[in-house]
Amino acid sequence: MGQEKNISNALVIKTDKDGRIRYDELVRQGHSKDRIIYSKFSDLLPKPIDDDDPEFNKPSQETIEETTEKTRKALESLVEMKVAAAAPVRRAEKTNPAEYIRYTPSQQGAAFNSGAKQRLVRMVEMQKDPMEPPKFKINQKIPRGPPSPPPPLMHSPARKVTVKEQQDWKIPPCISNWKNPRGYTIPLDKRVAADGRGLQTVHINENFAKLAEALYTADRKAREAVEMRAQIERKVAQKEKERKEEQLQRIAQQARESRAGLRRPGATEGGDNDPELMDREELRRDRARDRARERNLARSNNEAKAKIEKDKERDISEQIALGLPNPRFNSTSESLFDQRLFNQSKGLDSGFEGGADDLYNIYDKPWRGDSELVNHIYRPRQKDTDAYGTDLDALKKTKRFVPDREFSGTDHSRRLDGPVQFERDEEDPFNLSKFLSKVKKAEKRPGEGTSGTDISNRDTTHRKRDRKD
């Protein structure tokens, strides 16, 4: 008395008949002793059944009736209690009959118990007031009882833990993915392991595979349908094209036969039955088709032929101006390059006209003046004998490029090998030549003035004529 009671949830260690500790008491805690709990290995083993075992025999009829009667009375009492508790006004409960008890006191004597040795005591149950409220609270919360016992788990025998298993059991700390105050480098695997995403099992619905297969099948069927439809359209277009070509060929053949007179007026009605006539007609059509094809091929190359004819009929001087090569002298490099451009001291480094940069006269000399190409181009060809006949010899002997009237100041010792070439007068922007001529006129004698004036006038006339030409 007067001491505090120590409350503890520790269980008392118990042993079985073999002296082993009963660890299943942890499971039985909070359950009644009559509850069946499977917590041993032997509980998982199948139990042998013996027909002679009394535990497995069927109970007798008397035992069945007795158990049934007990069950009925227990259910009736529960029902009556539920109904009576639900009623607002209850009738007085029926009291039990009175009980008589013989009482013998321990002290005997005249001074005790009024000198009586025994007494009869009548015990009656006290009547309850039906309107009396309940004396105790029945709505208090009672702690929930223990749940169902867990199923037995079979564990393998204990074995020594390896170093790798110990390292695998090291769980990394939960480190923030946004803060790194001390600059610690966190490995990627540890950072991912901290999220716990590897512990979640990804479950993929099988309907995805069905959907993908259905889409693939539908796509393949659609492609096959489109391809088949395209093939049919191509075949129809090809047949239509062949039909139109046959129709056009038939019309063209009829027009050719009617124009050439190959078919007689009555050949269509009664002559189609003759096989020889049909063979001849087919042969004629083939021959006509070949001739038309040759004409078309010849007509298709008219551009190249026209270009060749144009080059043939080009003037000789125009060929020289354009620099067309001589096909008869392709072995020499003279027909490809201008020989005057090589081994010359003049050029951009020395300037034009001996350093006179203000005169931009690039045409100071005739192009291909003394070249052999000019002589070969102006020479008639061997096959021109049929075209000119006896006039070819006369053309060879005739001097070409001889002017009808000579110009003043011409050099007769030089023979022309090409077309007539003119020389441009030098430009005189300051009229120096006119000034010099006047000075010369003033210095000459009066008797010689007439002849000098005539000569100057004659030169001026020739120059004007040259410019006009």
From TrEMBL:
Region of interest (Disordered), ranges: 48-67, 132-154, 237-314, 403-469
Gene Ontology BP terms: mRNA splicing, via spliceosome
Residue span, SKI-interacting protein SKIP SNW domain: 99-259
Compositional bias annotation for Basic and acidic residues: 237-248, 277-314, 403-417
Domain of life assignment: Eukaryota
Sequence intervals crossing the membrane: none
One Gene Ontology CC term in the entry: spliceosomal complex
Signal sequence interval, chain numbering: none
Biased composition (Pro residues): 144-154
One of the Pfam families matching this protein, by short name: SKIP_SNW
Similarity comment: Belongs to the SNW family.
Record protein name field: SKIP_SNW domain-containing protein
Lineage: Eukaryota, Metazoa, Spiralia, Lophotrochozoa, Platyhelminthes
